[in-house]
Specification:
The complex is a heterodimer of chains A (114) and B (114). In chain A, strands 2, 4, 5, 6, 9, 10 and 11 form a seven-stranded mixed β-sheet that branches. Chain A has a four-stranded antiparallel β-sheet with strand order 1-3-8-7, with no helix packed on it. The mean pLDDT of chain A is 92. Chain A is 0% helix and 56% strand. Chain A has one domain: Sandwich (Immunoglobulin-like), CATH 2.60.40.10. Chain B has no helices and eleven strands. In chain B, the strands form two sheets. In chain B, strands 2, 4, 5, 9, 10 and 11 form a six-stranded mixed β-sheet that branches. Chain B has a five-stranded antiparallel β-sheet with strand order 1-3-8-7-6, with no helix packed on it. In chain B, strand 4 and strand 5 form a beta hairpin. Classes of the chains: A mainly beta (114), B mainly beta (114). At the A-B interface, strand 5, strand 9 and strand 10 of A face strand 4, strand 5 and strand 9 of B.
Amino acid sequence: SQTIHQWPATLVQPVGSPLSLECTVEGTSNPNLYWYRQAAGRGLQLLFYSVGIGQISSEVPQNLSASRPQDRQFILSSKKLLLSDSGFYLCAWSVVGSVTDTQYFGPGTRLTVL
Amino acid sequence: TQLLEQSPQFLSIQEGENLTVYCNSSSVFSSLQWYRQEPGEGPVLLVTVVTGGEVKKLKRLTFQFGDARKDSSLHITAAQPGDTGLYLCAGAPRSGAGSYQLTFGKGTKLSVIP
């Protein structure tokens, strides 16, 4: 079966510091991968998605970047965090060519920027 | 831009009551997913519906996809405290749209009081 991991689970960082959040998927090959941010337990905002190694699409201009160095690894980064980067970050995966485009989510990372 | 409107935004009911939450759009979706999310955790997939008029049952939960594939409902019978959480619907764009993205509603926050 497939599993998705995110770490760290929680993170408190000062403004201006760098960021690296990691997501890995097990039990599947060549998944589509996604990064979302969720504010205040409400709707999800898509930040980036990737359909293959080195292929990243950005949905929202921002202080963040994403990379996919390996097939099942997706990394969210920032060189200098802003207060507005605080939130709950979710990684998700889906099957390439799926009829339903169903996405499966990781446990999330709570980021607090002080 | 495709939008999904969820209603109600908040719902607080007593244990044992029945409830229905709605997910509506003016756009057609090729499939629609329902997720439940608990505080501090990632959304967990409950069901995917793909056929107009489709009804799926998951124990006390009944999901229906509208005939025109523009709307969906989730009905919970005899709600229990364990049903408490944020319910999110997400629609996949029409097949062939060339998008890997889901459109998410903002969610219905359900509280079931013992």
